[in-house]
Each structure stands twice: as structure tokens, then as C-alpha cells.
Write a structure and sequence with these properties.
This protein is mainly α. Among the domains are: 1-135, Alpha Horseshoe (Serine Threonine Protein Phosphatase 5, Tetratricopeptide repeat), CATH 1.25.40.30; 309-343, no CATH class. The chain has helices spanning 24-45, 49-57, 67-74, 85-95, 97-100, 106-118, 122-130, 138-148, 153-169, 173-182, 186-195, 200-209, 213-219, 233-241, 246-292, 296-307, 310-322, 327-342, and strands at 5-10, 13-18, 222-223, 228-229. α10 (173-182) crosses α12 (200-209). The chain is rod-shaped, with a radius of gyration of 46 Å. Residues 272-306 are annotated as: Disordered. Residues 272-284 have a biased composition (Basic and acidic residues). Pfam families: Clathrin_H_link.
């Protein structure tokens, strides 16, 4: 008979389970588990790491799906040109998630991602996350974020969205916002921050972690119906001047000054146009008032003088006289024309 607390040893690692002394089925189950562990040890000692990994990943009751087994694979050095045994085990572990029905715990998931990233297999981590086969945690987000530091644009463009997704899932809001800013998604970050109900110190934390002129300008812009900025210009500039990114603070001040200057010039031009328009309308009004005050005969004469040139009126009067056949009449008419022209 087995005791009520049966202990199995798998290569020095302790795996425990409780069985009922008086239940024959439990006794048989214990024997099967022991045989399963012994077979795993044989495969492992023979260097058949892939088979051992698959055997452990498919273990009943998950007796070999634990950190102890993972540590055994980690202790084996990789052969040249071969995948590290640890990564082989991690792949087997993650592949068995659909059959098992649940992903590895947070600690094991973190170790699996470390193993993949040590071989620069970011694509493998991406696949695991997209298939929801990992347990996300804030340390996992840190691991992905730190992996992108100092890497090329290709790695950054893939790694930062993964870190952002993990941070978002575990509600590490400031870190998620920083990842968005690092990707240039400043407006998306602001929307996320509003939904997450950021406080002012949280915005400042994002600015300090990811200083940029684009973020600084967005933070001082009026938002929402109240029309108030998220942070004041003085607060943002003061905070930036206290860091090595003081140049951004100086640049922000310069842009604010230029913006105010441009706004003042625009206002001046608008007022100048309005003043000119008002003066024109007033001049027209005065002219109309003065004209309407004239006597009716004077207005008629003014209209006639304005519409019919004097020379035209002279021709109208002269023409009938010039057509006269009388010589004396023509002479008198010519004299009359000269007199009128002098006038």
C-alpha cells in the first residue's frame, strides 16, 4: 500500500500527489504516473530531448508541466546548429495547450518567452500571443519592451505592439501608453489615457518616459467640452527642463511663442479689414445722406450733367442749325458754337 502522501522523484525534482490508501484505482493510477515519469527520465538521459519534451508536455495531470521540468531542460547546453533543449520543451508545452485546455502559468509563460527571445524568435512569441497560449503578466510586457531596445526598426515595429498588447491586457496603463508613444501613436495614446482615466501624474510619467515635441504639444492643447489643456505649458516645460531632454522644453516654448505671435497677427489683420470696411460703409452713408438733402431741381440737374456730356449737348443743338441752307444762318450758328465751346 502507498501512504496517503506519495512522493515521486523525477531527476531530483519532487512531484507530489495525494492518494487514498484504500482505493485500488488510486493505487493503479499512482503506478502509471510513476512509470510515466520513469520513461521521461529514460528519454532525457538518452539525450532524446524532443521526445522527452513531447512526453512531458503530454503528461497526465500535468505532473511534468512545471518549472522543475523546465529547469532540467534549461540546464542542458545546446548543441551547435541545434535548437536549445529548453526551447524544444517550451514549443512542445505551448503546442499542447489546446489539448490541455489552459495555457502555462505566468512564470512558465515568461520562461518560454525568454527562451524564444534568446534565439531571436520573436515570430514564435507573436504566434503564441496571437493564439492566446500564454498567461500574460506585467513582467512579460517588460521582457518584450526591453527586447526592442537598441534593435532595428523591423524588430521595434513588431516587438512594441506585442508589449503594448500585453500591458493592455494586464491593465498596466502607463506602460501601454508609453509603447503607443514609442510607435508615434500620440492621439491613440490620448484616447486610451482618457478611457483609462489618467491622472496628471500619469500623463507626466508618460512624458518623462517618452519625451517628444509631438506629445508635449498634445498635452497642452485644449481638449473636450471644457476646452482645458491636459497639462499647463508651465508644468510641461518645467518637467522637461529638469531632465536631459530640456531641449524639447525650449523647443516647446519657442513654438508656443510663435503660435501666439501668429494668432495676434491674424487678429490684427482681421480687425484692420473690419475697420476698413466700416470706414467705406460710413463714407457711402455720408454721401447718400448729402445727396438726398439737395432740392429736387438740383438733383435733376446734377443727374443730367453727370449723364450727358456738355460737348454732346452742344452737338445736339448745333446740328439742326448747321444743316440750314441760309449762309447767314450758318455763320450765326458757327458763332454760337464758338461761344458755347468757350463756355
Amino acid at each position: 500500500m502507498y501512504s496517503s502522501f506519495v512522493t515521486f522523484y523525477a531527476g531530483g525534482d519532487v512531484i507530489s500527489s495525494i492518494f487514498d490508501d484504500d482505493d485500488p484505482s488510486k493505487e493503479r493510477e499512482a503506478e502509471m504516473l510513476l512509470e510515466y515519469i520513469e520513461h521521461f527520465n529514460e528519454l532525457f538521459e538518452e539525450g532524446k530531448y524532443k521526445d522527452a519534451a513531447m512526453h512531458a508536455a503530454s503528461s497526465p495531470k500535468g505532473i511534468l508541466r512545471n518549472c522543475e521540468t523546465l529547469s532540467r531542460f534549461r540546464a542542458i547546453h545546446a548543441r551547435t546548429g541545434k535548437l536549445p533543449p529548453l526551447l524544444v520543451y517550451c514549443e512542445a508545452l505551448i503546442s499542447s495547450v489546446p489539448a490541455v485546455g489552459s495555457p502555462p502559468d505566468a512564470e512558465t509563460s515568461l520562461e518560454c518567452v525568454k527562451s524564444a527571445l534568446s534565439e531571436d524568435r520573436l515570430d514564435l512569441v507573436m504566434h503564441w500571443l496571437l493564439q492566446e497560449r500564454l498567461t500574460c503578466s506585467e513582467p512579460l510586457g517588460h521582457l518584450l519592451y526591453n527586447y526592442t531596445q537598441g534593435k532595428g526598426a523591423g524588430i521595434i515595429s513588431k516587438g512594441l505592439p506585442l508589449a503594448e498588447a500585453v500591458y493592455t491586457l494586464v491593465e498596466a496603463h502607463i506602460q501601454a501608453a508609453v509603447c503607443m508613444c514609442k510607435q508615434g501613436k500620440v492621439q491613440a495614446m490620448m484616447d486610451y489615457a482618457i478611457n483609462a482615466e489618467f491622472e496628471k501624474d500619469m500623463y507626466m510619467g508618460v512624458l518623462v518616459a517618452c519625451p517628444s515635441i509631438a506629445l508635449a504639444e498634445v498635452l497642452i492643447q485644449p481638449r473636450g467640452p471644457p476646452g482645458k489643456p491636459t497639462l499647463s505649458v508651465g508644468t510641461v516645460v518645467f518637467e522637461l527642463l529638469q531632465t536631459e531632454n530640456y531641449a524639447i522644453g525650449v523647443q516647446l516654448l519657442d513654438r508656443v511663442y510663435r503660435s501666439i505671435q501668429a494668432e495676434n497677427e491674424k487678429m490684427y489683420r482681421t480687425e484692420a479689414r473690419a475697420s476698413k470696411k466700416l470706414k467705406t460703409e460710413q463714407a457711402k452713408s455720408r454721401k447718400t445722406t448729402r445727396y438726398s438733402s439737395w432740392p429736387s431741381e438740383q438733383r435733376t440737374s446734377a443727374v443730367s450733367s453727370a449723364t450727358v456730356p456738355q460737348s454732346a449737348r452742344a452737338r445736339v443743338v448745333v446740328k439742326p442749325v448747321i444743316r440750314s441752307t441760309n449762309v447767314q444762318a450758318r455763320a450765326d450758328a458757327a458763332k454760337a458754337v464758338k461761344i458755347r465751346l468757350r463756355l
